[in-house]
């Protein structure tokens, strides 16, 4: 299998292991941060604001980040971004251990963390292509999706146990430490694998990336779809903790269990993608359909175990959608435009976070958790239908 063949490459294997450790810590912190806000405020809307601020830098910096990823040595950029996120996580842990944490500090931390992340994501994706080489990239996507979703499965469960037994600060501390294997790898990887990218006028380079997206219907369709679905159906950092606490009345361990159930469903999707030969764009449609179904099921008066099963379904749909759109774009884009097109894709995905997260929290406070989930599912379906009708009328599209 292409994905397993990549692990025979020592550089890629070390990168993948380091990335998995970091992803595990990130999911622990993500779960802990959401629960911390619910405990501090008891408000889904305020949780939505935190998530919105964490994604807000993507609206301003995603496109410049893509240009930077194509111009600067990617290893250098990753050392800066990974080191910054490690420092922020350790600082947050210090505030928690000192008992000095406030909602205001969470807002500041989330914004700065999001700023570092917006430069990290396009650089890391382009760096992954360098390590894997273009012909093995579908396998790299599947392998990275597998590790990401194993971390999604285990991270929230570990965080829930840590919060209940030892305290919130441990999740942030472990995340801060989890960046160090990647920092070590970036210090020893051969420079040739992370060389500087394109040169020239950065504004002209950015315009070239935008022009490519505009004239390529399947890429444009995928980007528009991921923004719409991201806005209404992939806001689990707000939806799940608020639903667990305010609708089901669960504690930290119960919340961690539901997040892990979603991770289990996502893992099933990732394994399926890794085992599959070839890429079928129709998987994107299947993924959106599963996501919409999960949201509509949350409208029903379900108990905790049933909600966990539904969230497993949501995790499966999310992976099919995200991996599908990512693979479609990565296999279509020329190498010299990769960082810029990835940054446009990430702008759509992460840029959906601020409006979507706040809207999700607001709807949950106004309508209640169940009704809000149903409304979000219907809106996601409407957007998917519109994009598919538009794409079907365009030439030169395989989707």
DSSP strand (E) fraction? Answer: under 5%
Number of domains: 1
> In whole angstroms, how far apart are the ends?
25 Å
The secondary-structure element order is HHHHHHHHHHHHHHHHH
Global structural class? mainly alpha
Reading off the top of the CATH hierarchy, the class is best stated as Mainly Alpha
Instruction: Output the radius of gyration.
Output: 20 Å
Helix content bin: over 70%
Could you say what the CATH architecture is? Up-down Bundle
Poorly predicted segments: none
CATH fold-level topology:
Growth Hormone, Chain: A
Polypeptide structure, described:
This protein has one domain: MFS general substrate transporter like domains (Growth Hormone, Chain: A), CATH 1.20.1250.20. With 399 residues, the chain is mostly helical. α2 runs parallel beside α6 and α9 crosses α15. The protein has 17 helices and no strands.
Concise synopsis of the structure shown:
The protein is an all-alpha fold and 399 residues long. The protein is built from 17 helices and no strands.
Secondary structure elements and pairings:
Blueprint: H1 2-6, H2 10-41, H3 44-71, H4 74-98, H5 103-132, H6 137-165, H7 169-178, H8 180-188, H9 202-215, H10 217-233, H11 236-247, H12 252-275, H13 282-297, H14 304-332, H15 338-351, H16 353-367, H17 369-392
Helix pairs in contact: 2-3, 2-5, 2-6, 2-7, 2-8, 2-11, 3-5, 3-11, 3-15, 3-16, 4-5, 4-7, 4-8, 5-15, 6-12, 6-14, 9-15, 10-14, 10-15, 10-16, 10-17, 11-12, 11-16, 12-14, 13-14, 13-17, 16-17
